[in-house]
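Dear colleague,

Thank you for sharing your sequence with our group. We've completed the structure prediction you requested, and as agreed, I am returning the results in plain text so they can be pasted directly into your records. Please verify that the sequence below matches your submission; if there's any discrepancy, let me know and we will rerun it promptly.
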Amino acid sequence: MVVDGMTDEAVDRLFQALADATRRDILRRCVRGEMSVSRLSEAYPMSFAAVQKHVAVLERAGLVTKQRRGREQLVRTDPDAVGRARQALDELETAWRGRVDRMSRLLAEDPEKHDPTEGPDR
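Please find the predicted structure tokens below.
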């Protein structure tokens, strides 16, 4: 699936990043405004290095950007990234709805033809 120019690999990175509760929380905090990695690390019962790794996963997925300002690394959510995730889900929904509709039409054509309890001689 290609979403807004994203490859399958990029879509996989996006959803793998969103699969973790800590990373989703980091995104929520950074939506309100940019935050330093050190300030973010104060909010979690883990090491500064662990928070840095979470931020790096989010950055690789394109969900946040980091900018160095002096000694601090400031993290900012990319608002377009959430739209890309929504677009990927919308495309999956469209594909699955199409499949379900095709199955429903096939079954509606001739119910006896598709009855699994019927044998070939009945």
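Summary note from our side: The first strand starts at residue 35 and ends at 36.

Kind regards,
the structure core
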